[in-house]
């Protein structure tokens, strides 16, 4: 039997739930529960690459950056360093939790976490239209000062509390450094954690040097690109809903369990999937399938092993 390779993207919720404050105990408990749900894939013979989000964690790192500068005059680190920090911290945590889960199931495997740089195009239009809100909420005066001092761009908060948040570009990922090593390690039977938080954003300059980009990359898009580049057969996006729905949160909401490419694209174009949450996941699944992937699954992090849940998208309908 040819072994299958799966890329599993863990959403914010797989690590930290909305109603939690993010203590390490909470994150470890959620992570363990999520990883328990992946054991069946290993038992079915899959090789695994794990990717993960970093929204709440990198937000906390940025705020510590700010507080450190205010209180102790510690130099702020740029966004790429903050993303790399989050990959290290979260990746280490997933690695240790996974080792323990495997031991409890009597499975012997290496688990390795790789700090991963993801290449973006410096001419990506996103650089002229930064949209992704990061870090703390500032007053107008603070925001004006930071704009003048650092060239940061701010956007007014629409929420009741008001204030201003820094916005950075979210360009498309175009290449993943070391993707061949990630694929090889996984196919040798090692569990690889990579491309956390969408990857550390870098670009290649005219001298072919690798340079940091002050940006963030969508983790679903980066995970999909990685899955395609390493030739994974299956792509799992674990989040906080058990299925995708059409007419979501409307009286005629409908579960979609089995979908083909054409219908999924039609629902996407009809606006059934919210921008900034479900739409990038759907786009990630479609681009995985169009570059040769066999099946993409979107489901709730703690329900994957219970196979009655989950929306399965394939090129043609499968029943
Ligand atoms: P993650 O942190 O896992 O990336 P997101 O919050 O970005 O999670 O995306 C998951 C969210 O997408 C769900 O909580 C749900 O509210 C939202 N969503 C928007 N449209 C849909 C839809 N049509 N079907 C299911 N979920 C949807
Ligand atoms: Mg998200």
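-> sequence recovered:
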């Amino acid at each position: 039997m040819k072994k299958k390779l799966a890329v599993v993207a863990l959403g914010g919720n797989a690590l930290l739930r909305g109603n939690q404050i993010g203590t390490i105990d909470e994150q470890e408990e959620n992570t363990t529960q999520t990883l328990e749900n992946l054991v069946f894939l290993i038992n079915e013979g899959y090789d695994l690459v794990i990717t993960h989000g970093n929204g709440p964690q990198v937000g906390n790192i940025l705020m510590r950056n700010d507080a450190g500068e205010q209180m102790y005059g510690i130099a702020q680190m740029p966004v790429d360093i903050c993303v790399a920090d989050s990959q290290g911290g979260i990746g280490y945590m997933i690695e240790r939790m996974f080792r323990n889960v495997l031991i409890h199931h009597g499975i012997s495997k290496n688990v390795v976490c790789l700090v991963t740089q993801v290449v973006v195009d410096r001419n990506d239009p996103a650089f002229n239209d930064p949209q992704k809100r990061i870090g703390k909420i500032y007053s107008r005066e603070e925001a004006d000062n930071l704009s003048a001092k650092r060239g940061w761009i701010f956007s007014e908060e629409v929420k009741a509390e008001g204030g201003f948040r820094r916005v950075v570009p979210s360009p498309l990922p175009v290449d993943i450094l070391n993707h061949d090593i990630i694929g090889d390690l996984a196919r040798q039977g090692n569990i690889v954690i990579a491309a956390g938080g969408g990857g550390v954003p870098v670009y290649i300059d005219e001298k072919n040097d690798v340079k940091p980009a002050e940006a963030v990359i969508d983790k679903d898009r980066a995970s999909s690109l990685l899955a395609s580049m390493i030739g994974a057969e299956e792509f799992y996006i674990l989040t906080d809903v058990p299925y995708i729905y059409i007419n979501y949160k409307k009286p005629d909401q409908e579960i979609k369990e089995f979908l083909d490419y054409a219908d999924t694209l039609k629902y996407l174009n009809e606006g059934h999937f919210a921008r900034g949450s479900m739409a990038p996941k759907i786009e990630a699944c479609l681009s995985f399938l169009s570059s040769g992937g066999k099946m993409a699954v979107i489901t709730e992090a703690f329900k994957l092993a219970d196979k009655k849940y989950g929306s399965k998208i394939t090129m043609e309908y499968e029943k």
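The first helix runs from residue 12 to 15.
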